[in-house]
TrEMBL record:
Coiled-coil residues: none
Domain of life: Bacteria
Alphabetic keyword roster: Cell outer membrane, Membrane, Signal
Pfam name, any one: SusD-like_3
Domain SusD-like N-terminal: 55-207
Residues in RagB/SusD domain copies: 314-596
Name of this protein: RagB/SusD family nutrient uptake outer membrane protein
Record SUPFAM superfamilies: TPR-like (SSF48452)
UniProt key word Signal: yes
Family: Belongs to the SusD family.
InterPro entries registered for this protein in UniProt: SusD-like_N, SusD_RagB_dom, TPR-like_helical_dom_sf
Predominant localisation class: membrane
Amino acid sequence: MKLSRLLLISAVLVSLTSCDDLFEPALENNQDISEMYKDPTFARGILDNAYLALPYSNSPSTDAATDDAVINQNGDDYKKMATGSWAANMNPVSQWDGRYHAIQYCNLMLENCDKVEWAYSSEILNQMYCDNYKGNAYALRGLHMMYLLRAHAGMVDGQLMGVPIHLSSEDSKSDFNLPRNTFKECYDQIMSDFDEALKYLPEQYTDVNEDQVPAKYAQKGATNAEYNRAFGINHRGKIDGRIISAFKAQLAILAASPAYESAGVASYEDAAKYAADCLSEFGGLDAVDPDGWKWFCNKSLIDGLGATSENPKEIIWRGNVEESNTLETDYYPPSLYGSGKINPTQNLVDAFPMANGYPIADANAEYDAKNPYQNRDPRLAAYILVNGDKIGATDGVVNTAADSKTLDGLNKENGKSTKTGYYLRKLLRPDVNLNPSSTTKQKHLSARIRTTEILLDYAEAANEAQGPKANVGGANYSAYDVIKAIRKRAGLGESGKDPYLEECAQNQDKMRELIRNERRLELCFENHRFWDLRRWKANLNEAAKGINITTDATTGEYIYKTFDAEERKYSDYMIYGPIPYSEILKYSNLKQNEGWK
């Protein structure tokens, strides 16, 4: 990685030099790092690069490396990874270069932030701007390190190791041949960065009145107008204290999980407390948004969001609201001019319970195999397109049957048609039209962290720590209370009761199974399951199944037969990802995770 890092360093320290340098005298258009001291716009650009490098994506690609989905394009790297080709030199989930590049930007900001003239008009305004950018740099460094740890931590000589920690910027004279730090050292450093960020950042970016300016700035003469410039609503979208509390909950539940618990850095009690602390900022159990499970297609809410709007109740941190039809182009069925790229599996469809709350295999479920989509969990219809469903601005009917007359049918055309008998609905706006003669776009909301995720973190941690009905980590609610609220908003149960939940609440193991399944359903296609299965040390090799639907020539009824659509081929050591092969070749002090070559 030395070459790529040196290229990055050069890009940061020197702007593009034009071909005029071939002539004498050369035109001066170079900028070194000292230029940021007098140019706050240039300085902000350095931190902006750390934001732009964040690994958030609306594409649910990693789900296709699990039992939840299949990609219909044969050359896709995630398909290769899931079917036996994952290697240290073929790793589509690698975070190595991207995260370290971003950390370089963060370190440059931290080393130079105090030297920047952020505001000429006022010393205290200058200090507040400095605090804002310094706090964001600490938070971003911790966040990028967290994603490095999740992707590349692993066992080395029987010890859980992390990645090399970089707390200063690098140049051509830096030593790149660094050993890996332990998982514990990485965890501690990330938490330290988050705590340091909290010293500088507000809980929430908001405009304040004169008497609401924080004392540490008011004592130095800051006016509310100045404070609002440095920490007001115009900064919404950047990291604040509430978002950092969510980062801590995410890190703690990772560290407490079976794959990482040997490091001894966080217990489930710790994870429950971090999640409860985060949720306290959003009303505790009241953080359950009644419409939160449909956040991606709430038309009136999304269309009303602006750059400085408060987040919806369901969203802790979001990306920009953008008008596009990219997701629909990728995932709509081909009859509606889409590529149908992600195909949900029968495995996932079967994970949705009946409307009465019972799993379909339970004797009390009243599941009808001849009408498999009737009386099901409402989330199934909201997240997955099944045979006969409608979507799109023209309400086009989707026929996924093997004997379909359209390209929507099973395996009708390679690279376009479904390989499982299902198409994606979640994340998509149903009012987009892709017809070339009347194409439309709609606004899309990108949810980076949802309150539902942190609620499920709490439920998992609380149940593991003390069982289904214990209030843990200072919360006044239990794992049972969280799951009850989430299932109730989805419309599960009968006569106002949820008998299957009550059954699970009597047994920690059954509650664990239910919590993990609720997490699977609520967060499907949001790039969680790939990482969840690994941190749980769960079965990675359940084949991705599909449904073959044909019409009985005599009765006209549909006949449903499941089949294995795609194998999953992972070795046991693959609960941890590899260090890039190219890095191992270059640096003698960098050791590979066990099992990887």
